[in-house]
Amino acid sequence: MNLQNKIALITGASRGLGKDMALTMAAHGADIIITYQHKATEAEAVAAAIIATGRQALALQLDVADTTAFPHFTTQIKTALQQYWKRDHFDILVNNAGIDAAAPFVSTTEENFDRLFQVHFKGAFFLTQQLLPLIAEHGRIINVSSGLTRFSTPGYIAYASMKGAIEVFTRYLAKELGHRGITVNAIAPGAIDTDFLNAATAAHPELKNYLATQTALGRLGVPEDIGGVVAMLCSEEGRWITAQRLEASGGMFL
Ligand code: NAP
Fold first, then answer.
1. Over the stretch 70-101, which tens digit does the pLDDT of each residue have?
2. 156, 159, 172, 210: which one is catalytic?
3. Which residue's CA is the nearest one to ligand 1's atom 23?
């Protein structure tokens, strides 16, 4: 896999899956722009780790739920592209930033629903729209979905609905952007051991073991199970894959 001369923008890469995507893509030669919401120190550490390997990297703050911030963010990206790379375009956009907010149907509040909608769907939709003029021909867009769109786990009705929406968005966008050679795919991780899963299982730590027993490969996923798959989709080898939902779950709930 070779991602040399590629620039990837990954949202929510201060921790968890996004962090591993950033480190893995950088290890394959890409330069990386990451975003974070609150954890500036963690994000700066990710950028520093990439720079230490000889690649270029920077970390920018962005709340993906706040569409009013997108024009300013886009200007920041344009400026950074000129300043660091003397380029007008970047190559890879990964819509990864996400939050957990579990509740059964009967107690899902409108507030939680709206928050999940803004972060997981509306944010990804309009951030992609805003950034599209800056994405190079033959670029890549990866949207992060979830195994929860295939199997139904109590508490995830609203979250999984937003992820289902991002999968439909992925297929439509692939059709609309095909003439520019841009591929658009959704990656659907199963349960991955990150802060996100730790928060979800905090009240019932035994859930992690249960999830491992429901996984064909016999363990929980780790971020390193996902970063390489995203890198592959973004590489030249992934050029003929578009409009797909690729599940990387170790075979959960088969
Ligand atoms: P995580 O470890 O909790 O990290 C979440 C990342 O998203 C952080 O970088 C966080 O920034 C950022 N973020 C959260 N809300 C944001 C907002 N409003 N605006 C901008 N950035 C925001 O989560 P993760 O497990 O890596 O999850 C990453 C993605 O994978 C999410 O879309 C999630 O739905 C999806 N996913 C996760 C799992 C799993 O089991 N872990 C499974 C399937 C899919 P700060 O660090 O600044 O807070």
1. 999 999 999 999 999 999 999 999 999 999 98
2. 159
3. 196
